[in-house]
Amino acid sequence: MPPAGWRSPERLFDLGLGASVLGWGIAALLRAPPDAPLSPVRLGVAGLHLTVALLFWTRGAAQAEGGPRRLAMALPSLVVSGVAFRAAPPPEAWPFFMGLFFFAAAALTALSLLTLGRSFSVLPARRPLVVRGPYRLLRHPAYAGELLLLQTVGAAAGEPWVQVLCLLVAPLTILRIEAEEELLRVDPAWAAYADRVRWRLCWGLY
């Protein structure tokens, strides 16, 4: 039998979001030219969509939501990232080695998100703390992977305005991290984890 609460508005919302994201991933594969091999970029994008769809379907309920102020801190990075990704050149137009770098960054991001499992969130919320896998090395490895993806997009696009957008995501991501960590500090295990894993995005820098 389905678990209790699976028909709650929150679960139905997650199921709908997961289905939408899965559809975007399938569409990314179907739009590939029939006479060309699948590019690493297209495979990376499809893999990320599949990962996020799975996590929407399986994540647990939030212990606390972020509220309007933290939502306002997190949204700009999501909006600017979305605009930058939309401005990327078609996957088949990417230089091959740049496409491989994108795929590697997508794999890092997907691995970090899968490690979160039922603690996966898009907007600030408090869920059980995850300290295993890549989270033993950085506090926010998924965001580190996303930033690598975006810098690759900026390099592939070759348009100054796209490169500026991709660079702008970094300070906006830091703002998003601050919003999330405000919530996580309530967790009794957070202080020990933050003391053990000092760096958030990049060793020796932040």
Q: Explain this structure to me?
A:
- With 206 residues, the protein is an all-alpha fold.
- The chain has a single domain (9-196), classed as Four Helix Bundle (Hemerythrin (Met), subunit A) (Up-down Bundle).
- Helices cover 64% and strands 2% of the residues.
- The chain has seven helices and two strands; from the N terminus they run H-H-E-H-H-E-H-H-H.
- The protein has helices at residues 9-30, 40-58, 67-86, 96-116, 141-157, 160-184, 190-196, and strands at residues 64-65, 125-126.
- It has a two-stranded antiparallel ribbon.
- The chain is globular, with a radius of gyration of 17 Å.
- The model has no long low-confidence stretch (mean pLDDT 91).
SSE inventory with pairings:
Blueprint: H1 9-30, H2 40-58, E1 64-65, H3 67-86, H4 96-116, E2 125-126, H5 141-157, H6 160-184, H7 190-196
Antiparallel strand pairs: 1-2
